């Protein structure tokens, strides 16, 4: 479960930071408008990202767990806070802080998962 959350968090972080990379056909099939990106991957998972100012609204469906989820990210300079909830009642909170080319990430969920990890553009996570 911990690895799943870390991968989910990273996939959204990278898709938000690099929207163009989410449109690579081998990763997901995406449709894009001025403020909205909607994608479906090869496994049947779906998500959308809507941008309103410094706030991102994420919505999705996780096929394996058969659950819907929603997450809101609010950016304040180099710091981004996020909160989310899933249809099975699980909730999560966390933040990402950018320091140069590095991000410091922390999250925890009501399901008992938590993690703190650092990612770099040069060395990865």
Automatic annotation (TrEMBL):
Keywords: Signal. Residues 1-22 form the signal peptide. This is Glutamine synthetase. The lineage of its organism: Bacteria, Pseudomonadati, Pseudomonadota, Gammaproteobacteria, Pseudomonadales.
């Amino acid at each position: 479960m911990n690895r799943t959350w870390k991968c989910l968090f990273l996939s959204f972080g990278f898709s938000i930071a690099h929207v163009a990379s989410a449109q690579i056909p081998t990763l997901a099939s995406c449709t894009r408008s001025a403020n909205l990106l909607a994608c479906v991957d090869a496994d049947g998972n779906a998500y959308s990202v809507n941008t309103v100012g410094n706030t991102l609204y994420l919505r999705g469906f996780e096929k394996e767990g058969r659950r819907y989820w929603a997450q809101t990210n609010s950016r304040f300079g180099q710091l981004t806070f996020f909160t989310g909830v899933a249809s099975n009642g699980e909730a999560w909170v966390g933040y990402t802080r950018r320091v140069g080319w590095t991000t410091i990430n922390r999250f925890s969920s009501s399901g008992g998962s938590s993690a703190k990890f650092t990612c770099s553009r040069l060395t990865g996570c």
